[in-house]
Design goal:
Chain lengths: ~110, ~110
Amino acid sequence: DQQVKQNSPSLSVQEGRISILNCDYTNSMFDYFLWYKKYPAEGPTFLISISSIKDKNEDGRFTVFLNKSAKHLSLHIVPSQPGDSAVYFCAASQIKAAGNKLTFGGGTRVLVKP
Amino acid sequence: SQTIHQWPATLVQPVGSPLSLECTVEGTSNPNLYWYRQAAGRGLQLLFYSVGIGQISSEVPQNLSASRPQDRQFILSSKKLLLSDSGFYLCAWNKRGLAQYFGPGTRLLVL
């Protein structure tokens, strides 16, 4: 039972354009969402997060949007740069749950073409 | 600042051999600690987490076990490895807030 899904396994975008990554979740108890970036053979790096009391959070080129009614979040990267080429994972959590556990999606591989 | 270390970086082991992967965190005390596995082309699956010394919670039934003998040390073990144990093992920590911070990972190949 996949509670967090990233339905696009890959995305190709031209340098300078916008990258939009999508993530859907099924557990309505999730109230905190995160995006991570991962290069091959390295650990994931935390990018940005959003709590369910907000619908948008922005940090530089990265913006996360949350649509609670649709149980959907997205990550926008503007403008995309070649160094953004990586696998991106969304993750979800319950703020008050024991252990601060994260449930991850399967990842989306982004390729930014120069 | 906090840092997280994992070793070894790469490991090739025969089926049926034991396993011990180590993770240590520096620059913080009483962190929550986590072990994840990423199978080839897949997402991250939480295996174990620990909120304190000697406290281990298992998320999925499997051939592996975890221990936390010291506050900032987290060990992943197996008595007999299976082919299906191959993967990329990641240790992570957090303390305040929900973002977890990951180590560099260990690539395990069971032959």
